[in-house]
Design brief:
- By secondary structure, the chain is mostly helical.
């Protein structure tokens, strides 16, 4: 996941530098007043998004597989913990029922 994020950031930085160079050389229009840097940032984001979507497809799929595997492991661990809790609860209930029966039987004999 970190690799995908760094690759996406690299594509954005590359697009930012290209857009900044084009604006600086006046091939692309400048922003209004002091908004030039905001213009360059927004344009770089708009350009880098589809490039990242296409170029990083395999890396995104690989990261997705890793995330799914982590979620599956977490679900399995939660299920194992829940099963252990259920078994412990069932054992405690069975033990308390046996204790009630034994004490109830002793009281009936003592009467």
């Amino acid at each position: 996941m970190l690799r995908y994020t760094l690759m996406r950031l690299g594509i954005f930085v590359g697009c930012f530098l290209v857009v900044w160079g084009l604006v600086y050389s006046e091939i692309l229009p400048r922003g209004l007043g002091e908004s030039n840097m905001l213009w360059v940032l927004l344009l770089a984001m708009v350009i880098s998004a589809p490039i990242s979507f296409v170029v990083l497809r395999k890396e995104r799929d690989r990261a997705s597989v890793d995330v799914v595997a982590r979620v599956d492991r977490a679900k399995a661990n939660l299920e194992a913990n829940r099963t252990q809790e259920d078994e412990a609860d069932d054992a405690a209930r069975a033990q308390s029922k046996d204790g009630v029966r034994a004490s109830g039987g002793a009281q009936a004999q003592g009467s």
